[in-house]
TrEMBL record, chains A, B:
EC number(s) given by UniProt: 2.3.1.35, 2.3.1.1
GO MF annotation list: L-glutamate N-acetyltransferase activity; L-glutamate N-acetyltransferase activity, acting on acetyl-L-ornithine as donor
Keyword Acyltransferase assigned: yes
Biological classification of the source: Bacteria, Pseudomonadati, Pseudomonadota, Gammaproteobacteria, Oceanospirillales
GO biological process, alphabetically ordered: L-arginine biosynthetic process; ornithine biosynthetic process
Residues the record marks as active site: T197
Family: Belongs to the ArgJ family.
Binding site for substrate: T160, K186, T197, E280, N404, S409
GO cellular component: cytoplasm
SUPFAM superfamilies: DmpA/ArgJ-like (SSF56266)
Protein name, as recorded: Arginine biosynthesis bifunctional protein ArgJ
Protein location: Cytoplasm
Site (Involved in the stabilization of negative charge on the oxyanion by the formation of the oxyanion hole): T121, G122
Length: 409, 409
């Protein structure tokens, strides 16, 4: 299931960026499962990774290779991504396999091993099927193409339980020059960021220096992938990259960063929301807006407490305007000196809770009308300050249980 | 659904304690839903309540009445409990209704209003059906009986989505005297303590002074009701009482408290576990033992992170030895400087994880054999210190979703 329709957008080609995919038989026969993304020389790469203490072997190796590139002022040249196997919980063997995969692609492409960054997603704890992966590399490399359509094939080649590929693109003017930002992402379960539980690859043709690039990525992730949750589970493999190829004419600097920052935020938010719309078993796309908080941390605490409540999520699935469950979830959030009589809750445009109880004039009919929609906004005003946060989540359906009880993911 | 069989135990009568129930039509026709528990004069009462900021009206009033009794050195004489309606999120009206219920029972029984402590459980946000509740009070009072069988009827009269009444009893010798502890509890969803999301009423015939009674209750709750979770949701109405009637011959003092403390812990643990065995949709009873932690808080953090993981809970439902999900949940627990290479995980007697990955010699067949059982112990050794914690939880099944999507609870 998934909420709404979402056609993969047209992606403009980015000079020097080529994407290739193949069906290596890692996930299952007839599924694209191996992706190579070639970057032009001198591209800058910023990355954020999972904070899960059990991080996967490719996360460790991608970090090492990025550090090695930066130490020698070289640029990463290839991203190597497989689905069907996370290469997580695989100990020393997993690290060897991730390194050997990079080495083989580097050999085929004639670059240094450290120029290849590995990413994996899929089942945890099984050894990477190295024979099939290595055998698939020449075909993936040969398939590399700069055409816009190659982005969609790459989007398909990184999916796990997702039902559709997810992409976003923005082209904006910076001064006299056009800048394009293309992104693809995957993820539909084990989604509670920090970093966001997903893979995301975002590339722009602008030139951006490393420190600014890293700052832009961190800011954008904090308000996109780090603000979504399906099931509160943080994966071992999350990674999000922002690549600036510098192959376009535009240069983004700290002095004139606003236009780029906004466009990047739009791309990242669209990608993050696409994950929620395609969340495992999702029948609802839910926006939680918490306002008038004393701090952004407090706003996020309330939003995530509501977003993680199985009782709120099952009520959303049932289209049941069970506002008592929302109120109970708000009440158990870890907020110090919480005066709940000041809390105001709205469901869409319907006033739900005030003065510690049901709002005057609220009717079940009005609440049910909003809950019947497939896109729902819950607004929670805390009456404590001026800070705010927005979090996106999905409902908890029978299909979520089926997908995760039946599928070894 | 529920795990295993659980007959309600034989309860010895406690001198001076009488329990009465009736079908007042608050929950639905033909269901016991109103319970009165009469205590002898001079009983000592200790209580712990929900920490949810949106606490229900009866919680506020019970706290007020307890404080009033203690200020005037009087003892509470009646516990008044209804199911079918939580009287939560009901604002000023809810407080008036809770007070009026106590006043009417006090009038009928000829005691002061403050001597009645109210408790409610059921749907949040609907006004208490006062006409039916008040009309039911004389019948509940008339039905008061000291026989052991009255405990089972009271156990039935406090249930919501529970499928069976839950009771526990211990009789132990303290010096030359026998001491009995009887307890009943309810709760099967919205169960994540702090205080435990449930109602619990535990009564002993020993004489125990107020400060010691409160300490004993707090200690026992922290290792029983505060160590269970069904769905991470903390209710607005939780309450647990420990009553010492002093009508038996035994006196419990700080100097010779060990026997009583152990018996109380057994009763409370049995009651807390009974909630998990009867959790909404439960097909598994799961014990999470975390050992070798640097602190008890850290052990609890790891245990609850695993216990709340929807991916672990659906794997348990599917009897799938998906140890990668357990490892990923352990890895996202908030533990500082977490060296996961020291983590050891066992599933029953099967060695699952060591050195950051799957344990050598582990076989899928061995893991599956344990997962197929309906009572499962997961042991997680952190390799950081000497502290430990045990948490009990259930799985996440299709029935959990059905119960909470179809039932306005």
């Amino acid at each position: 299931m998934a909420v709404g329709n979402a056609d993969f957008p047209d992606m403009p080609p980015l000079q020097g960026v080529r994407l290739g995919t193949t069906m290596a038989g890692i996930k299952k026969a007839g599924r694209r499962d191996l992706v190579v993304i070639e970057l032009p020389d001198n591209a800058k790469v910023a990355a954020v990774f999972t904070r899960n203490a059990f991080c996967a072997a490719p996360v460790t190796v991608a970090r090492e290779h990025l550090a090695a590139c930066q130490a020698t002022s070289k640029a990463p040249r290839y991203l190597l991504i497989n689905t069907g196997n996370a290469n997580a919980g695989t100990g020393e063997t997993g690290l060897c396999d991730a390194r050997a995969s990079c080495a083989e692609l580097a050999r085929l492409a004639g670059v240094a091993s450290e120029s290849v960054l590995p990413f994996s997603t899929g089942v945890i704890g099984e050894p990477l099927p190295m024979e099939r992966l290595l055998a698939g590399l020449p075909a993936a490399l040969d398939a590399c193409d700069s055409a816009g359509a190659a982005w969609q094939l790459a989007g398909e080649g990184i999916l796990t339980t997702d039902t559709r590929p997810k992409g976003a693109s923005q082209t904006v003017a910076i001064g006299e020059h056009q800048v394009t930002i293309n992104g693809i992402t995957k993820g539909s379960g084990m989604i509670k960021p920090n970093m966001a539980t997903m893979l995301g690859f975002v590339v722009t043709d602008a030139a951006i220096e490393q420190p600014l690039l890293e700052q832009l990525l961190k800011e954008a992730v904090d308000r996109s992938f780090n603000c979504i949750t399906v099931d509160s589970d943080t994966s071992t493999n999350d990674a999000c990259l922002l690549v600036a190829t510098g192959t376009g004419a535009a240069v983004v600097t700290e002095e004139q960063v606003a236009v780029f920052r906004n466009a990047l935020q739009r791309v990242m938010t669209e990608l993050a929301q696409a994950i929620i719309r395609d969340a495992e078993g999702a029948t609802k796309f839910v926006t939680l807006q918490v306002t008038n908080a004393a701090s952004r941390e407090e706003a996020l605490e309330v939003a995530f407490t509501v977003a993680h409540s199985p009782l709120v999520k099952t009520a959303l699935y049932a289209s049941d305007a069970n506002w008592g469950r929302i109120l109970a979830a708000v009440g158990r959030a870890e907020v110090s000196n919480f005066d709940v009589s000041r809390v105001v809750i709205n469901l869409g445009n319907v006033h739900l809770v005030e003065n510690g109880g049901r709002a005057e004039g609220y009717t079940e009919a009005a609440g049910s009308e909003v809950m019947a929609r497939d896109e729902i906004t819950i607004h929670i005003g805390l009456g404590r300050g001026e800070e705010a946060a927005t979090v996106w989540t999905s409902d908890l359906s029978h299909d979520y249980v089926s997908i995760n009880a039946d599928y070894r993911s």
